[in-house]
Write a structure and sequence with these properties.
The protein has 474 residues and is α/β, with parallel strands linked by helices. The protein has 13 helices and 17 strands.
């Protein structure tokens, strides 16, 4: 954040937002190329004033239609133009808006997310070396926006770390790797602690879902518990993230066409882990328990079979009629365990059902909840961050679908009805009376197509969870 005058800025590229039908700011209005600048939404023009050098004008559309999402997109467009120009330092003149702090936060978020790239495994690029990375962002505005800008930096960088976890291949990002990342996060802050349970301890606790899904793989399963002691007077927040590091479907094998994407079936776990790190870095005043069940789902001679019956951590029995409906089995144990550990409100994130992609595409994640207040809080957090959720209903008729023929429950109904709601209704069986919200991110965890996340890993949920924690902190 800086209050330096526009003409005095020392940056490789200065960006100004231009509303439709309005004028460029003083100092660049007469610059070379200014006549071509348009305020139409997402229009870009490069200007060449004497000072500060290069200025990029980004169209913001009509002033009355401006919102934080438009500012995130505008920032993403500017970041991509900066990459084309090999720019390492960027400065934004804060656009006039009704909420300077929210605008600043959106610019920081859009810039950092759009600057992300995953190239860890590239030894060379046939098209030449990649552009230099953006190293600094300066906001030209009042000092009052500094705190919001810094908080947004923390959250956006955490989201990019979640994208790293999502993008790693499954031979690297194993359950043990996720456990190691949790230990790194805990080691960065004195108010965080971590506990990791392995196969023998998971079995000893009789977590039948996690035991069943992991029995087909040689890779060691992990149950990861992070605790954050931030104080405050509000209820203890529980976060649960699905951590299937590779999902073949098990015996109920998936089609091969897109199976490589199943390395991202741990996207809920990635979001939860990195959100906890950001919450601790921001020092939010609340207590939090995060539970991440992590395993591969593989077919083998020891894998669970369709028709097998298991006993979950809370004692309920389940007919496993589809081994590709494994996420709900490991989440069931984790939810029941989070309740036992003292979580008084629980939000789980999971790439749980393909049905949610059919229902909502990649614009909204689905939220299913047993508590109106918590559902509203999750929805509001999503509106604030641009990680939108849409609530789907629970109803006793959906509950009927979850009933088993020879056990309490079945993990896959014979009737292909309301698949996303069915899965949520199944999970509700493991939270008791605790307020709970399930967020199905199978449509939003990757291939979203927004200007600031592209079509690869999105890190969806990190900022939503941090915003929710912020609103619940007291």
């Amino acid at each position: 954040m800086s209050q330096t005058q526009l003409v005095e800025v020392d940056a490789g590229l200065v960006v100004v937002g231009l509303y439709e039908g309005e004028q460029l700011p003083e100092g660049v209005a007469g610059a070379l190329g200014a006549a071509d600048a348009k305020g139409g939404l997402e229009k870009v023009s490069l200007l060449h004033p004497e000072r500060p050098g290069r200025v990029l004008a980004v169209g913001l559309g009509k002033r009355d239609d401006a919102d934080t999402e438009r500012f995130r997109v505008a920032a993403a467009i500017a970041a991509k133009e900066a990459a084309k120009l090999d720019v390492t330092s960027l400065a934004w003149l804060l656009p006039e808006s009704g909420d300077g702090e929210a605008t600043a936060a959106a610019l920081v978020t859009g810039t950092i997310l759009a600057s992300y790239r995953f190239d860890r495994f590239r030894s060379s690029d046939p098209d030449g070396p990649p552009p230099p990375r953006l190293e600094s962002l300066t906001l030209l505005g009042p000092a009052s926006i500094a705190e919001a800008a810094e908080a947004s930096r923390v959250c956006a960088e955490a989201q990019n770390r979640a994208r790293d976890l999502q993008s790693l291949p499954s031979n690297v990002a194993t359950p043990s790797y996720l456990a190691g990342r949790a230990e790194e996060i805990a080691g960065m802050n004195d108010v965080l602690s971590v506990e990791v349970l392995g196969r023998a301890e998971i079995s000893a606790k009789e977590m039948g879902g996690l035991v069943a899904v992991s029995q087909g793989t040689e890779e060691e399963p992990k149950l990861i518990v992070l605790r954050y002691a931030g104080g405050g007077s509000g209820p203890t927040l529980g976060l649960v993230g699905k951590g299937v590091t590779f999902d073949t479907g098990g015996i109920s094998l998936k089609p091969s066409a897109s199976m490589h994407e199943m390395k991202m079936d741990m996207s809920g776990a990635a979001a939860v882990l990195e959100a906890v790190g950001a919450i601790a870095e921001l020092g939010l005043a609340l207590d939090l328990i995060a539970v991440v069940p992590s395993t591969e789902n593989m077919p083998s001679g020891t894998a669970i079979k369709p028709g097998d019956v298991i006993t979950q951590y809370n004692g309920k029995t389940v007919e496993v009629n589809n081994t590709d409906a494994e996420g709900r089995l490991i989440l069931a144990d984790a939810l029941a365990y989070a309740v036992e550990l003292g979580a008084e409100r629980i939000v789980d994130l999971a790439t749980l059902t393909g049905a949610v992609l059919i229902a909502l595409g990649s614009t909204y994640a689905a939220v299913i909840s047993n508590d109106d207040d918590l559902a509203d809080e999750v929805e509001q957090a999503g509106k604030t961050t641009g990680e939108l959720v849409w609530r789907l209903p629970l109803h006793p008729e959906y509950k009927e679908l979850t009933k088993g023929a020879v056990a309490d429950l079945t993990n896959a109904s014979a009737k292909r009805k309301a698949g996303t709601i069915y899965a949520g209704s199944f999970l509700e069986e493991f939270v008791g009376e605790t307020p709970w919200a399930h967020v199905d991110i199978a449509g939003t965890a990757w291939d979203v197509g927004r200007a600031y996340t592209g079509n690869d890993a999105s890190g969806f949920g990190v900022r939503l969870l941090v915003e929710l924690a912020h609103e619940l902190s007291a």
